[in-house]
């Protein structure tokens, strides 16, 4: 049984209550600060000002990033990894902070969405990627290379991940695809580990962590999204197996068998 802790408040306040070194993996999908008058996006084929919500407008984004990243690093286990998603609006800030905090940058993963929304203006390229920083406290960190290879059909996995944007399951404007989070959790943690998501949103990380039998700590500042996340995470029924999304299961029976065998091996040998 997974232990799920979901809390409604500012993540920096809540992070301060977590004991140092107690979290195995962190996935953070923070405000990218792309809402507001300066950025535009496409909605129903029309150009509109980008508005993800008030939570996405932060006056000093770099200072905010530095504060939460520092707290995350304090709570991260010595062999844990932090995975932070972003676009060009926030990844330079995150990259500078990771270097400043002397962290080991494990990888920058490029997530390519082949089906990303088209661009209506003709003055630049259509955005279809996000970047995910992976960092650790030292060069000794947990990483499941074998599972990565298995997911990639037996070939070494590269840092370019082609995963389509999926139809949202909730009304949250920036819900991440479960397929992406599944991959992140499978590569960065073991069953029984604790995953933290300081910006839980609609609860995608919690849903996937629970399915994959990890413990989960999630923080969310908006009561509306908090409720959505709570309902979504509690609604998941576990059928007693190592479970992934139906889609992934159908796509990759071989992966399921491999991970089940691995889980049995782990439980017999620990
Ligand atoms: C990019 S979204 C995360 C989406 C999430 N990955 C999902 O799949 O639904 C960021 C979320 O962080 C929340 N948030 C913003 N500032 C926060 C803060 N200081 N503490 C906790 N949550 C915050 C927002 O309300 C928003 O739901």
Short description:
The protein has about 270 residues and is an alpha/beta fold. It contains 9 helices and 10 strands. The chain has one domain (about 5-245): Rossmann fold.
Task: Name the features.
270 residues; alpha/beta; Rossmann fold; eight-stranded mixed beta sheet; two-stranded antiparallel sheet; 10 strands; 22% strand; globular; binds S-adenosylmethionine
Task: Walk me through what this model shows.
With 270 residues, the protein is α/β, with parallel strands linked by helices. It has one domain (4-243): Rossmann fold. It is built from 9 helices and 10 strands. It has an 8-stranded mixed sheet, sandwiched between helices. Strands 3-4 form a two-stranded antiparallel ribbon. A hairpin with a 2-residue loop joins strand 3 (40-43) and strand 4 (46-49). Helix 2 packs across helix 3. The longest helix is centred in the C-terminal third of the chain and has 17 residues, at 253-269. The two termini are 18 Å apart. The chain binds S-adenosylmethionine. S-adenosylmethionine binds next to strand 10.
What's the layout of helices and strands?
Layout: E1 4-8, H1 11-15, E2 23-28, E3 40-43, E4 46-49, H2 61-75, E5 76-86, H3 91-100, E6 104-112, E7 129-136, H4 145-151, E8 160-162, H5 178-188, E9 194-197, H6 204-211, E10 215-220, H7 223-234, H8 246-251, H9 253-269
Parallel strand pairs: 1-10, 2-5, 2-9, 6-8, 9-10
Antiparallel strand pairs: 3-4, 5-7, 6-7
Helix pairs in contact: 2-3, 5-6, 6-7
The chain binds S-adenosylmethionine.
């Amino acid at each position: 049984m997974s232990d799920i802790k979901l809390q409604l408040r500012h993540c920096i306040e809540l992070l301060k209550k977590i004991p140092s070194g107690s979290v195995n993996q962190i996935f953070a999908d923070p405000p990218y600060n792309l809402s507001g008058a300066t950025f535009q996006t496409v909605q129903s084929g029309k150009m509109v000002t980008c508005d993800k919500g008030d939570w996405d407008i932060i006056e000093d984004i770099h200072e905010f990033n530095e504060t939460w990243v520092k707290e995350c690093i304090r709570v991260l286990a010595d062999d844990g990894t932090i995975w932070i998603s972003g676009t060009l609006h926030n990844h330079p800030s995150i990259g500078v902070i990771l270097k400043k905090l002397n962290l080991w940058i494990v990888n920058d993963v490029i997530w390519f969405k082949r089906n990303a929304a088209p661009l209506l203006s003709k003055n630049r390229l259509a955005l279809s990627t996000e970047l995910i920083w992976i960092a650790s406290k030292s060069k000794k960190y947990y990483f499941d290379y074998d599972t990565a290879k298995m997911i990639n059909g037996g070939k070494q996995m590269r840092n370019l991940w082609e995963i389509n944007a999926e139809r949202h399951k909730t009304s949250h404007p920036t819900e991440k695809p479960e397929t992406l989070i599944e991959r992140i959790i499978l590569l960065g943690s073991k069953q029984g580990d604790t995953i933290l998501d300081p910006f839980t949103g609609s609860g995608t990380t919690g849903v996937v962590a629970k399915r994959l039998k990890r413990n989960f700590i999630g923080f969310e500042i908006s009561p509306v999204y908090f409720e959505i996340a709570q309902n979504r995470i509690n609604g998941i029924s576990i059928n007693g197996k190592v479970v992934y999304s139906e889609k992934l299961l159908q796509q990759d029976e071989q992966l399921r068998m491999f991970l089940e065998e691995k889980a049995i091996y782990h439980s017999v040998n620990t």
